[in-house]
Amino acid sequence: MISVEKNRGIDKFLGFLLGLGISEGITVLFHLGNKPFLFIEVFSPLMFVYFFVRDGRALPKFLRSVSTGFKLFFLIIIASIIPGVVYFMSFSVAQNYFVGLITLFISMTAAFNAFVLQQQRQYIFRGMFVGLLLNIIFSLVCFVSFERGVVISLKDIFNRDAFFVPKYAFRAQGFFLEPSHFIRYIASVVIILISSIKIKSSIAKYLIICACIAALGLSLSGSVAIIIGGMVLYYFGTVHNKRGVKPRDIVFVVILVAGLSVFSTEIIDAMEKILTGANITNEENSGRFGAIVSVLKQWKAMIAGCGWNLTSSLIAQAGLDIVAAFSDIVEITVETGLIGGLLYVCSVLAMAFRLWKVHENYSRALSVSLLMILALQAGTDYAFNPCIMLVFGLCFAQLSENKRSLDS
Questions:
Q1: For residue range 13-53, what is the model confidence (pLDDT) as tens digits?
Q2: Cα 74 to Cα 340: distance, rounded to the nearest angstrom
Q3: For residues 120 and 11, what is the distance between their CA atoms, to the nearest angstrom?
Q4: Per-domain residue ranges of the chain
Q5: In 148-201, which residue ranges form alpha helices assigned H by DSSP?
Q6: What is the rounded CA–CA span in Å between residue 178 and residue 162?
Q7: How far apart are the C-alpha atoms of 153 and 97, rounded to whole Å?
């Protein structure tokens, strides 16, 4: 009995750290070649080892919860070195392949950990919630400071040149390298937190919502449109909507509109930039759109795949004047072939559909989160990071729990 209580206490603490750990992208503990490893990319594998040693049955349970489509997709990833070597006619690309494979498995440990901690998932959510608040507060502080002529940057502290530093216009990025990473993080967690975190004080809840909206707007990212769409879908698809609109909600909307009208010029300007960014084919995004098209034209590589994590090698060999494909879906398809790309997209959509069919807020929050992640992967390149994998793990755990409920 004491051992069970002790394990439960440890799980609560680990769950909180797991949720908090995915809430930043700047703390590099060490490098493997050119690949920086963040705190969560070290902490999550250590958690995996701990859970595996504690209960050897946990891993088989997790693997059984993963759909056949995802299993086949990951088998294709592992086997992709074969067509990759054939395509490049060289074994020199194997190094990038293995680095990508190691990085993928490290991220996958977050999915396993979230699955194991299903019974303590509220503590994961609490860690995610604290992380989200810290990101929002930091973004707003940086904005106020920028408006007063003082630029706050973590570039010098963390010694990473890739860190975005605002010069002429401010863009919220939280504790991430750049605004697009910040938006990907919010898209992954915000609907889950809305469905799971209980805040008794209505004033505190509305203040947090306003702060989150402000931080999203200040990112000036076109991807905000996807998050807004996801929020609308979740709202109209949950049982909360059946209770109708309460008077306090009307009062909140009136106060919010009145407050935002004071900053109408700034809001209109931000919305124009967000809508402009959402159009990937416009003049400002022509380089990103051109890069996606250039990689898509490599049909020879897409037939069977050029190998996992080898898009950069493909770009170099083809002499394309770009730095990346700027689309996870395009990279997945190029690296694992047409079959791999279709398997991934169809598996995510199938899992989202299965979760949506469960008429319960949390399951539908997971479903909407998956759809937003997939939509963002179509136009951004942030790969399978631990944050996304944690969401996948929560989805696997919820589907497994729903199945047990139906069986009983």
A1: 999 999 999 999 888 888 776 778 889 999 999 999 999 99
A2: 9
A3: 7
A4: 2-407
A5: 155-158, 179-196
A6: 8
A7: 33
